[in-house]
Model the fold of this input.
Amino acid sequence: MAHPAATLTSLLRASTIQDHDEILKAANAAIKASKTDIDAQRTRVVALLKLDRFHDALRAIAEGGDVLEKECIFEKSYALYKSGELQDAHGTLKKSSTPFQSSRAFRHLAAQIAYRAEKFQDAADAYRHLSQGSGGLPGEENDLKINTLATRAQMEWNGLGNILDEQERQPSRDHLEAFETAYNAACTCIARADFSRASVFLKRARDLCEASEDLSAEEKKTELLPIMVQHAYVLAKLGKETEAVALHRSITISEILEAPTRAVAQNNDVAIGGAGRNPYLTQRIVQSATALSGSDKLFECQASTLRRNRYALDLQAHKFEGVESSTSKLIKESPSPTASVEIAGLGVISAAAHARMQTDSSKALKEIVPLLEKQPTDIGLLLTIIQLYVQTKNPGPALSLLDAFLRRLETASAPDYEDVRYAPGLVAVVVSLYRLQGRQNSIRAELAKASRHWRATSEESAASLLREAGVELLRSSNVEDIATAGDTFSDLAAKSDKDAVAVAGFVASFANNDYAKVEPYLESLTPIGRLTAGTNIQGLVDAGVASIPSSAPVSKKRPADGEAEKPAKRRHKIRLPKDYEEGKKPDPERWLPLRDRSTYRPKGKKGKKRAQEMTQGGVVREEETLELVGGAGAVKVEKASGVQGGKKKKKGKK
Done:
């Protein structure tokens, strides 16, 4: 009978990728014959890994003792990585006596662990070094391209896209050569909300996968399902609801092998075309379909989206107290205050639950504004209140609340509070509220402070904010603002000379004061001739400069120093009567009241009597003075009318 070790050796020489079960049997037989056979033990570990029996592989390494563990550092790290124990996998990999830089296999595994642990910047650096290095295996270049694109997509989803160069962020025609690269390039576009381009890449990925000759029918089906799930999502985001529903109905969710992809597909199936569904039934479907077990794990951006969707279903089912309790607990467990998008989103959901989903903005404000006193560091709640105030066209209280919150952060002693204070999102909200009130100087002051903060710490985390701050400060006539803009663009241009906005801003900031400083950057800018190509300059000159005529006359008199310029008085239009005739002399008594005019003729008996009593054309009444008895004085009385000689005239007989 042949020796087990010899049998194992001969089997390994003639083995192919389909012989892992036979290799495992032979390795077990060799170990049974000699328990100290390290080669047989390591062969068994590799065979178990090939058969995806990762926990069995870890047990086999533990049974082999310290000697086998030192020999199987790579295998143990890989088994831990596949089992979802990422921290242990990274720690085991560090124990290796082989430096990462000298072993491409170790560097590949380190990149994969960093990717799955969501340390995407470390993974991107590892793949960049592997791509630039030499000594790769055949076909490794394509794998590196696929993994690099996947890492970039994850960086975009997690808000780290600004770390990448603009050229790395944009998909190219090279990515259309294989369905894996086309799919990952589409994911990058989705993360940047470029859904039109993502749809093109996903369609290309589907066509290439279906036309592939290297895949079996079953493998094609496995690869196509995630592509179709992603494409249905993109169509829904593009507003093509009918096409998205039809595509999703063609997907059999139970046939998706990967549990995370299956959970995402079930979530999308509920979300796409889900209007009008029973929220209670939908809630049960989502809870049962998106639950994961074992080492299956969603990325945090996926998990947070599914979590928000479940809360949305709970709100539709009127489970307000449960949602408020759950979200408040998560918010309190997080660092406070925090600029995390996930925690801010939970604050918005908590506010909606507290307001019992009020659709009237004024009523919702009455419910949640008092809540801000109990949770003064809840940014999500604060932004919700600000949004409601803006919807009611009342930005004043919103700005007051935000200013008070920012002052609390500025006076706090914690160093992390400054990063929250100048978070790009909060700065954008402040600038928007100032712009609603026309406070241009306040906008520039806020952007100048934000620029100084991020330039003193890490400009990589707020590159977009620094660009916008520099552009706005360049418009100012203040020397200090222009100097701050120059420093901002100088840092951005030093980081990347391919950043066209940074280079142009740098040149605009120093062109008048220090031409020698900006001269090396001029070649990277688009020449003026190319920018003005096709422009009819003579036609513009002949047309003249367009200007808006001013309705108010401009005073030529210069105001005194310290005196505010008075606004020009508005001249009222002359109004003429309806019966006005040019050349006819107007009535000189037209300014007198009607009763005082000579043409006035009162109507009725009383009116005629009053007319007779008037002095103009009337009878002048005579008065007489009568002495009072006892020398008490005298009074004037009117003479009696119709009296002759102090006697009354007798009436004649009839």
